[in-house]
Specification:
The chain is α+β, with helices and mostly antiparallel strands and 265 residues long. The chain has a single domain, classed as 4'-phosphopantetheinyl transferase domain (Ribosomal Protein L22, Chain A, Alpha-Beta Complex), CATH 3.90.470.20. 28% of the residues lie in helices and 22% in strands. The chain is built from six helices and ten strands, in the order βαααβββββαααββββ. The strands form three sheets. The chain has a four-stranded mixed β-sheet with strand order 4-5-1-10, with helices on one face. A hairpin with a 2-residue loop joins strand 4 and strand 5. Helix 1 packs across helix 3. The longest helix has 22 residues.
Length: 265
């Protein structure tokens, strides 16, 4: 995400006391894999009521709570707590544990994953959020990346494009009428970000050397990387419109995967 309408509520049902209902470990999620890899995509509502938010915060680690406390605006703190608490609840569905149990570790370039002590649980995940919406991608078989952005005016759009877009992507953006450039800019951004998150490199790999489909595409499209970057090749990206005024993308290795939209019970 940069900073981070079919609308799906990211909250679990609440009883009359306002407490979270127990998670039902639906066996549809646990240890399930198929010959055709599936990426489960969960849409999250990050603007949760206080009672619900308290339950989500209770599952966070001290380190996660410390990160949340560093936000200046309370709204950003609340959304961080919601995003990371909901991620834990989703992982709990797959792992058949309580939301507080999963332990995370970061890869060499900062990508979160389950810690080595959970290495037997081959669940890959990625999280992104922008304003009140979040997306969480889960796969049993594939390293996955996801990104979501609200389409909005951006004063430094051209400076950002010049720094992170390829020459073809920048030329495409400049070929459009100035009034028509904002959505394509964010579409290219989320595709590039989703790919870089999928490979676990983030912005540590020069993003202008990566080329994503710069014109609207249906289905999966292969990401173009420099010759000799075999470990970064073979990834495909799919663009999405998760809600009115938002763009998103999912990326994973190879092209034989599909997306299954999910929502919390």
């Amino acid at each position: 995400m940069m900073t981070k309408h079919k609308s799906i509520d990211g909250g679990l049902p609440e009883d009359n006391s306002g407490l979270r209902s127990p998670i039902n470990h639906d066996p549809d999620y646990r240890g399930k894999s198929s010959s055709s890899a599936t990426i489960d995509l969960w849409m999250l509502n990050l603007d949760q009521p206080q009672g619900r938010l308290d339950c989500l915060e209770a599952s966070l680690t001290a380190e996660e709570i410390s990160r949340a406390s560093k936000f200046v605006l309370n709204l950003h703190k609340r959304r961080f707590i919601a995003a990371h608490g909901l991620l834990r609840e989703i992982l709990a569905l797959y792992l058949a544990v309580s939301p507080a149990e999963p332990v995370f570790a970061c890869g060499p370039h900062g990508k979160p994953a389950l810690a080595p002590s959970w290495s037997g649980k081959r669940v890959h995940f990625n999280l992104s959020h922008s304003n009140e919406l979040g997306l969480c991608a889960i796969s049993w078989n594939l390293e996955v990346g996801v990104d979501i952005e609200q389409v909005r005016p951006l004063e430094d759009m051209y400076a950002i494009a010049g720094a992170v877009f390829s020459s073809k992507e920048t030329a495409y953006l400049k070929s459009l009428a100035p009034s028509a450039r904002t959505t394509p800019f964010f579409r290219i951004w989320v595709e590039k970000e989703a790919y870089l998150k999928a490979v676990g490199r983030g912005m540590s790999f020069p993003p202008h050397l990566v080329e994503v489909p710069h014109q609207p595409q249906e289905g999966r499209s292969e990401v173009v990387v420099p010759e000799g970057s075999s470990e970064l090749s073979g990834f495909h990206v799919m663009e999405l419109t998760p809600a009115r005024g938002y763009v998103a993308a999912v990326a994973a290795k190879d092209g034989d995967w599909k997306i299954q939209f999910r929502h919390l019970p």
